[in-house]
Design a protein that fits this description.
heterodimer; A: about 180 residues; mainly alpha; Rna Polymerase Sigma Factor, Chain: A; 2 domains; B: about 120 residues
């Protein structure tokens, strides 16, 4: 039986290190991916992930459960990532895709095309302004709801919706350009 | 036609390094150790302060007479406090504070003389 976040948080607040380790194991992948999209390279993303969990550990005592733990953690993640990016403004561009990450395509042509499309989408996401990039990360990549995103970004749901629409239009423009070229 | 949503969903997620969790836990462990050191350091400071207070000379020791050589220079003229003749000590004290003895005496004379109705 899986232990709920609430139980683990309570135990971690009581000083149980093992409980906190379980929370780290549960959320590290999601935090790392958000960090990666913000900072743009894996090395800094890992650093930002560590900063996030350290900040989370420090302020765990003040977590009252008014929002979900994930929402709260994502908020810290954004803060840590931006903080790290400010320290190193000339961050690297999105890394090249690894060989093991392009197994979805079937034929060599599909493989090449898939890789190209993903590369363009990656670049398009990276070129978005931060406020649009955030909603793309949380809505399309992390699969969060408007409500959850609004809680993370501490803005109205309507704002989240309009930002998603803007981001979608910008990304679509990039893909249409790609279609025309093909 | 390329579907944006579909392509976004197909974007590969970055795999987590196998040692990332242990590195995070290591940093948290260091943080805990640092906090406990700080606390111990704080305790030591308090204990050191307590020790220093204990080592300070007591007020009785402080009041011991100073050596004679200390009084080689002429002592300042000591002004004796005049007796309080008036019921209202407040006035006297204020006057005394100004150290204007002449004024004080004048005031006393005024008080001693019956006031004409």
């Amino acid at each position: 039986m899986m232990i709920t976040d609430e139980v683990l948080i309570y135990q971690a607040q009581e000083g149980n290190e093992r409980a906190f380790s379980l929370l780290v194991e549960r959320y590290q992948e999601r935090v790392l991916n958000v960090c990666f999209r913000i900072v743009g390279n894996m090395e800094d993303a890992e650093e930002a992930t560590m900063d996030t969990f350290l900040a989370c550990y420090r302020s765990l005592g003040s977590f009252e459960g008014r929002s979900s733990f994930a929402t709260w953690l994502y908020r810290i993640t954004l803060r840590s990532s931006y903080k790290l990016r400010r320290k190193a403004p000339e961050y690297a561009t999105v890394e090249e895709l690894d060989d093991n990450e392009i197994q979805l395509a079937d034929s060599p042509y599909d493989l090449l095309q898939g890789q190209e499309i993903r590369s363009i989408i990656e670049q398009a996401i990276e070129s978005l302004p931060d406020h649009l990039k955030e909603v793309v990360i949380f809505y399309f990549l992390e699969g969060l709801s408007y409500q959850e995103i609004a809680e993370i970004l501490e803005c109205p749901i309507g704002t989240v919706g309009s930002r998603i629409n803007k981001a979608r239009k910008k990304l679509q423009a990039k893909l249409i350009k790609l279609n025309e070229e093909c | 036609m390329i579907s944006l949503e579909k392509e976004l969903m197909r974007l590969p997620r970055k795999p987590v390094a196998s040692d990332l969790a242990s590195r995070i836990n290591q940093r948290i462990h260091e943080e805990r150790r640092l906090v406990s050191y700080t606390t111990i350091g704080g305790m030591n400071q308090i204990q050191n302060r307590q020790w220093a207070i204990e080592q300070e000379p007591s007020p009785v020791q402080k009041k011991q007479p100073l050596p004679e050589t200390y009084f080689d220079f002429p002592m300042p003229r000591q002004i004796s406090r005049p007796p309080r003749r008036v019921a209202s000590g407040k006035v006297c004290n204020i006057l005394w504070a100004t150290r204007d003895t002449t004024m004080y005496e004048r005031r006393n004379q005024c008080l001693l003389q019956p006031t004409p109705l």
